[in-house]
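As a point of orientation, let us examine one representative protein, giving the amino acid sequence and backbone structure tokens.
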Amino acid sequence: MRSYEFTFIASGIDPESDSFEDRFFEAGCDDATLSFMKGLLAISFNREAAGYTHAVVSALRDIRKTGVTIERFDPDQTNTD
């Protein structure tokens, strides 16, 4: 398997919440780095998968479990299958 890098930008979560990081870890986003910029949450993945599409779709499924609103997707242009 290969690692793929990409980022989702999301909103609708309080970073001051006690369960903020746990929510993502428990949803399966333990391979993501979380950061805030301009009031939005950047969820940057380095995900192993059989292909780029599989990596992105599985990350999207995991993010949806957290209840955040996905604002946009930022692909890493260096990813190729």
